[in-house]
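=== RUN LOG ===
request id: a7f3
mode: sequence -> structure
chains: 1
length: 376
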Amino acid sequence: MSETKVTRWVRLGDYIEQCDERAGNDFTVDDVIGISTDKKFIPTKANMDGVSLNSYKIVNPHEFAYVADTSRRGDKIALALNTSNKPVLISSIYTSFRSKDVIKLLPEYLFMLLNRAEFDRYARFNSWGSARETFDWDEMCRIEIPLPDIEVQRELVATYNGLKTLAEQNEALLPRLSAACHAYIVDCRAKYPAVPLGEYIEQCDERAGDNFTVDNVIGISNVKSLIPTKADMKDVSLAPYKLFKPNEFCYVTVTSRNGGKISLAMNNTAKTYIVSSSYLVFCCKDENILLPEYLFLLLNRTEFDRYTRFNSWGSARETFDWSEMCRVEIPVPPIEIQKAIVEVFSCSERAKQIASKARARMKNLCPALVQRAANS
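=== RESULT ===
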């Protein structure tokens, strides 16, 4: 009968060692970097004017760095792996370390283990001190990790990196797509006259009656999206609630105490929701003249948030009422141009969703991969 192979659990300190190489005169301020609790290197926040770099530590490619002080960091530890192809500099108070033998412990595999919420909790629980709690080198060395064969480590890292690459590639598209979309809108403002929005939209006031349930109730956020309602719906009659159909808009007229933003959303689903009777629901009169998706692009800009706050009126509660919404002026280019702008925006949204899902799967994947490593 074949013998089942069990992965060893080992003391991390037997496989890692500190690095203490100093910068000397071979580096510049541009090489100095900080470490975030998101487990990555970030631009330094320190004032580097007149600071000597001689004492700064070098973190070479495939080496780690972490901040021992874990207090006041949101229950996370600041740690990163240098995945670039060049050395960087960190403060001399930070700890840098590396794998003693990358044939036995792959740096990327170790980073997977240290990039988990479990490790953050472990580091906080095992931090000691009074004014400042620290997770020192001795505690780091006492960690026990599963150490499968190097081939298994490489396979697990490849799986993780596949999702990471997918996320990074789509995130890299976002600035360019966003800039293109903004440029389109600016161009439209220059080429086409601004017209009152009220000529192209109309209110919708169809009520729910007895045809809907609490599951159909939806809320509106100031980030321009639909959210689960926060209202206590116990024993509430839904009869006066307004229908919020696909391609329709809904907004909350009250703009005070709302973070300088207006709560507004477009129903871009195929489902009809119901919203509070105090909300305003409206739609485009003719979608062949004004595309709902194009209008949403205009209403989803920070400029519109500022406009609504400036044009909100009242004493105890400031509101941006329907007459003010109708006075908003927008450019209305030919429908084909509207569709082209919306397509660019849709590409941006798809890239954002793909990146977000990949990041979420990475978080869920780490524990699963570690479990697999432990049982390989």
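=== NOTES ===
The chain has eight helices and 20 strands.
The chain has three domains: 9-147, 149-174+338-376, 193-332.
=== END ===
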